[in-house]
Amino acid sequence: MSDWRTRIPQAAQEFLAGRRLDEIECIIADMAGVARGKAMPAFKFDETSKYYLPTSIFLQTITGGWAEFRDGADLEPDMIMRPDFSTATAAPWTADWTLQIIHDAEDTHGAPIPTAPRNVLKRVLELYRAEGWQPVVAPEMEFFFVARNTDPNMPIIPPIGRTGRPAAARQAYSISAVDEYGKVIDDIYDFAEAMGLEIDGMMQEGGAGQVEINLVHGDALNLADQVFYFKRMIREAALRHDMFATFMAKPIEGEPGSAMHIHHSVLDATTGRNLFSTENGEGTEAFLHFIGGLQRHLPSAVALISPYVNSYRRYVPDFAAPINLEWGYDNRTTGLRVPISSPASRRVENRLAGMDCNPYLGIAASLACGYLGLKEGIGPREECRTNAYVDEDEELPRTLGAALDLFEEATGLHEVLGEEFCKIYAAVKRDEYSEFLQVISPWEREHLLLNV
User: Fold this and answer.
1) CA distance 272 to 245
2) What is the location of CATH 3.30.590.10 in the chain?
3) How remote is the C-alpha of 84 from its chain's centroid?
4) Cβ-contact 265, 366 below 8 angstroms
5) Which residues contact 258 (CB under 8 A, 6 or more apart)?
6) How many CB atoms lie within 10 A of CB 137?
7) Domain 124-447 adopts which CATH fold?
8) Confidence band (pLDDT; 50, 70, 90) for 1?
């Protein structure tokens, strides 16, 4: 019998206490952040030392196709899946006693597979570590509860709440609005407790059925794992109550979009001091350089933080979404906000990322831009002290095609994220964009069929 059960987190051990473990889900995030892998009886997991999956899963598009990318021999080699037992957690929605374990992807020599999104984030964190820096992040997750939608041709609509009425919009921060779907919220809390995931806060957002969950700040890899787990868990909780949970950037016409705001700070790895604050509590050059790196390099990283054609429907005025790269203290109209905090907690909030992004890649991309700012000593523009929505700039790409053009030219970003990953990511997204362009929308049929 393997001793791995003594190495898993306390929450997982408590979940199994006095129970017989039935199944293990060996999972890994693909380019889209979809959980892929193998499920096996627990006794098989005990007996098996290695698990294999083809590296081609990182070439799979969101529609189930395969990107046309060929570099060298036309092969589909396997990768070795290596369990990270620190990620073991319950799958409390299953009918039996099941654990999920996130795995890392390695080649036969033990080297990380460079196209695996979790490895991309690890690569960025290693660059920080080499400088003696320790990034700290805190994601905010926005999503919608919606009525079941089994016909893609039909619009998405809000779910029916406990009052028998559809969830209402324009109810930001309303406790009553959250109570409309209280039973699914209760399941989310219960599942999170069983999984050992800590929710820092939950609130109603501005859209009909839109909720925000805040996570406690911490290690970037651990927080990416948590978002990966949360997205799966929230979907399962919603299905129990005859509704969907969606992390689409803009699922409902006329409603706000869903973001994954990412708060960043950087600590001295030895002393734990926040490098964004001086001893006197003022902002440091490192703080400004991090912001400057975000301003300069984020346009090239938008393809990673807004990965689908639907993502760009968030970037419109008057829908509480960022349409700029301005920065400011406690200014929610800026794409880069510095929240009110103590000097020790000084941080930068990147408000550009959509909730539809792969959490490993979204966090990696944002940290990569800040890293380049720190290394290059990039100064930011002057702080924005007014309404940044007023002056629309053209710094941000407004379509996936334009974002990919910038991404493919970003040599500095490629060096940080890895050349091979960037080539394959671009190939996957080009295929998805090309497939989308072949679809004729209802708007085109309605307005163009007989009028042009």
Assistant:
1) 38
2) 124-447
3) 20
4) no
5) 142, 143, 144, 205, 207, 210, 247, 248, 249, 250, 251, 314, 354, 355, 356
6) 23
7) Creatine Kinase; Chain A, domain 2 (3.30.590)
8) very low
- Residue of 381, 208, 412, 374 whose CA lies nearest to 293: 374
**CB distance 258 to 140 below 8 Å:** no
pLDDT tens-digit profile of 245-261?
999 999 998 889 999 99
Residue range 4-113, CATH number = 3.10.20.70
As a whole number of Å, the end-to-end CA separation of the chain is: 72
Residue with tokens 């020790």: 344
Which tens digits make up the pLDDT trace of 159-172? 888 887 777 766 76
pTM (predicted TM-score):
0.95
- The b-or-e profile of 257-274 (16+ CB within 10 A means b, else e) is bbbbbbbbbbbeeeeeeb
Residue 232 belongs to what H/E stretch?
Answer: helix 220-239
Please tell me the distance from the alpha carbon of residue 53 to that of residue 370, in angstroms, as a whole number.
Answer: 33
Quick: pLDDT tens for 384-424.
998 887 766 678 999 999 999 999 999 999 999 999 999 99
